[in-house]
Amino acid sequence: MKYICIILLTLLNINKPDQELYTCKNAHITLFSKALIEDIKATTASGISVFNATTSELNFSVPISTFQFEKAFMQQHFNSDYMESDKFPRAIFKGKIQEHIDAAKDGTYPVNVAGDLTVHGITQKRTIQGNVTIKNGIVSMASEFMVRCADHHIDIPQILFYHIAESIKITVSATYNPYKNIP
Amino acid sequence: MAQVTTTDSLFNSMSSDKQHGPVTIFESPRLILTQSTEMLKKKNMNLVFAHRFGDVAGDLGGGRTLFGLDAIADVYIGFQYGITDNLNVDFGRSTLPNGGGLISGQLKYALMHQTADDSSPLAISVLGMGGVRPYNAYNTFGDRVSYFAQALFARKITHSFSLQVAPSILYDNQPDPNVPGNENTIFSVSATAKLKVTKLMSIVVDYAHPFSSFRNNNAGYSDPLGAGIQVVTGGHVFTLNISNARAINEMNYLANSGSDFGRGQYRLGFTISRTFDFTHKEKYNPK
């Protein structure tokens, strides 16, 4: 029943023709931490994003288990000990671009996106800076920001040999396609 | 009902909470007695040092041997290498001072991994091992050779509890020990439980039962049983355990399980394993 409701709502809402929607299914997200022995870096291209140019809403979601690390055991620790990805499978950002973007006009717009960042099941109000680029009608975004482990109750086990930094640098880049409504 | 915005509904329809990829059931390919379904990833190498001390109590234990710490029941040095994510090769050597040692080679193959979305509820691996006893007197070279095959079935049942059941068959060309009435072929079943107590520490209990009419309590045999704690740190796994089994290799402890907790014939043991990753992806140079 719940799913039927969701599907109905989805159909009802998405078919509104007056909203300018853009989606991205392969947002690149990178995390980087300075560490004692070697720096730790992981990437994923499985982030998804929806940008509503009419309402300025901007949402991101990334499955934690898709982050690829250089070393297999780092990835195992990241999922099972730090992020507990079986309990908290996704990191989600739901925000609103504070500036007005005209998707019809080429250019690079520095933006502030205010919203909720949910990582490891903990939600924090954040305003994240980034750039929106529009070139020949193609919308793309890039951002770089820090996430403090403590803000999201991510414990760092003390006896791990690979101490990670208290703040992790996150880099996001996404290129959008216009969302085509089913007529 | 809360208003669902267009953005949210499209966003929700795109995000599925389905998780993909295999689940880590045991952190290490080797538990206390048994091996696990866990595989080494491609181009990873795992070095294993396992040690079993002498009897804590009983005739050979006590203060005279510092509760067995002076004695060596078995030492195993081995390495494993991931040919692919699903095929591992393993070489090892056991000291086993009274058993003529053992040099073993093994192939292990993962048939199936448990997945987070439960589309595959179990992890199944199979392994085949061949072993040669380099020392002691044997009539022919063939008598030195043993074969072992095992199927491992494991499942992470809850967030912290994992269970493994592993039937196996062992064939010794010359029965071990070589006494009348002993069998060449032994069927066994192993069962292993792991309970995660903290993020990095688990309690492991490992048990094996050989189905053998020769190996009964009256003849002085008892089933191998081990319990211990496993600590995982980045790239290292430490296991500290107590077991009645003297030997570390399956071929030895399943065939010759002649020590009993009741007679004080249990011992401290530890395993240290270190994984080296030889994959070198592009080096990241921060600006």
Average pLDDT, all residues of chain A? 85
Number of H- or I-type helical stretches of chain A: 2
Query: How many discrete domains of chain A?
Result: 1
Rg of Cα set of chain A: 18 Å
| Structural class determined from secondary elements of chain B | mainly beta
Number of strands of chain A: 10
What name does the CATH topology of chain A carry? Answer: Lipocalin
Estimated share of beta-strand residues of chain B: 35-45%
Which radius of gyration of chain B do the C-alpha atoms yield? 22 Å
Written account of the structure:
The complex is a heterodimer of chains A (183) and B (287). Chain A has 183 residues and is mainly β. Chain A has helices at 2-14, 72-82; strands at 21-33, 40-52, 57-63, 68-69, 90-97, 107-119, 122-135, 138-148, 167-175, 177-178. Chain A has a single domain (21-178), classed as Lipocalin (Beta Barrel), CATH 2.40.128. Chain A is 13% helix and 50% strand. Chain A has an 8-stranded antiparallel β-barrel with strand order 1-2-3-5-6-7-8-9. In chain A, a hairpin with a 2-residue loop joins strand 6 and strand 7. Chain A is globular. Chain B is elongated. Chain B starts with 5 loop residues before the first helix and ends in a 10-residue tail after the last strand. Chain B has a 12-stranded antiparallel barrel. With 287 residues, chain B is mainly beta. Chain B has one domain: Porin (Beta Barrel), CATH 2.40.160.40. The chains are: A mainly beta (183), B mainly beta (287).
Fold blueprint:
The complex is a heterodimer of chains A (183) and B (287).
Chain A: H1 2-14, E1 21-33, E2 40-52, E3 57-63, E4 68-69, H2 72-82, E5 90-97, E6 107-119, E7 122-135, E8 138-148, E9 167-175, E10 177-178
Chain B: H1 6-14, E1 44-53, E2 72-84, E3 87-94, E4 102-112, E5 123-132, E6 145-156, E7 161-172, E8 185-196, E9 201-211, E10 225-233, E11 236-243, H2 250-255, E12 267-277
Antiparallel strand pairs in B: 1-2, 1-12, 2-3, 3-4, 4-5, 5-6, 6-7, 7-8, 8-9, 9-10, 10-11, 11-12
